[in-house]
Automatic annotation (TrEMBL):
This is Acyl-CoA dehydrogenase. Keywords: Oxidoreductase. InterPro entries: Acyl-CoA_DH_C, Acyl-CoA_Oxase/DH_mid-dom_sf, AcylCoA_DH/ox_N, AcylCoA_DH/ox_N_sf, AcylCoA_DH/oxidase_NM_dom_sf. PANTHER family: ACYL-COA DEHYDROGENASE (PTHR43884), ISOVALERYL-COA DEHYDROGENASE, MITOCHONDRIAL-RELATED (PTHR43884:SF12). Residues 57-128 form the Acyl-CoA dehydrogenase/oxidase N-terminal domain. Residues 278-408 form the Acyl-CoA dehydrogenase C-terminal domain.
Amino acid sequence: MPLSPADSRSDRNLLHQRGSAQTSTDEPSTTKETFMTAPTGATVRAHHRTSLVDRAREIAPVVAKYAADNDAHRVVADEAVQAMVDCGLTRALQPARYGGEEAHPVEFVEAVIEVAKSCTSTGWVLMLLGVHNWEVSHMTEQLQDELFGDDPTTLLSSSYAPHGTATPVEGGYILNGSWKSSSGVTHASWVILGASVEADGKPLMHNFVVPLAEGRIIDDWFVLGMRGTGSRSVELDQVFVPAHRALDRQILLAQAGPGLKKNDGPLYRVPQGYLYNLVAGAPALGAGWAFYEEYVDQLKKFTRRFDNAKLSEDRVELLRTNDVRVRLDDQQKVALRILDEGYRLAELGQVPGDLEAARGIYDAARTAEAALYVAQQLMPTMSARVVHELNPLSRLYRDLIVARQHFTQNTDFAAATAANLEMGNPAAATFLLSEAERTAAADRSKRLYG
């Protein structure tokens, strides 16, 4: 069942619900009322609680403390994850009725950026944990009860690429195979896995939610960067998944999921492509800012040995440093504006048009590219000492390279989709449906869920 107000474990969570005027006698710092400026420039009333961004900054010392260890051990430290759970960051996009925040997605992304400034991998894991709770809010109430009814702090990892198979059987599906790169899987108790299933006479991608206790985690995350994400593989051997734990992805994109009957706030009407295209982008922004700040700090202390020149006084260095700062700042504003516009339309009961959505997805897909640009421009100007693993710039550079490789940051694919729509050409898209697909998905949802 959904979280009960009488549940002692929910007391703190209920104080953090959106719009709550309650105050806490033991935690006064979480109930102050503030005002903030939205990306659109409008002044809006903040929640009656400490903002997610402030909470992210409060736990920054804990996150930063384990950044190097995360990279070395190839997994985020338990202490860092627990800090994010304890302060509510992992529940930011979770329904209030299940002990979540139902926060504005812009605020959540800003919090992810702050965490990623201290450790890219930790920010990456936080972003994924948050969007997974957003996603399952579109699924059946029975599943949400299983996940959050007894423990609102439940964490889910994912691996969406169809590396394994799903076979329909009576009452559900049999999943079999191995799924790659499930970030944060060692901290989760459930995992979302992707596989193709025939629906309406054609193969359609589905997402399946599976208890990790029924699978096996394979330690195979040996990579260039983002090492601390612990993105290991998940292996299942003929595991039965009941039908209520599965969702057709087109039903999700069509905003026709059964969970929206009760989770009817604007947060859950924000286009998936706007939010998911920042899965890699938001942590990359944090890493980009961290690289910039660390670079400036090192630059101030750096003197070239062969001519004793101070690089911090070199005109080319100064111009280059200012250029990357402006580009990074501009891209962050663009990304947050896209999310804010999606939320504003959702509040009005509207959705962006196809071309507008495709352009928004493309603009979001450029985020990791902009962040990597910072490192690409600044890294070569320093001495060879920056390539040593003990130098934070080395780790951040590697993290940015890997973040840029995520499928959500494929600017070529996103650009082609937007351009084809503008020209009236057929367009393949990861997060967009044709009108016919939307109608068919809504019809399937009605048949399945009433």
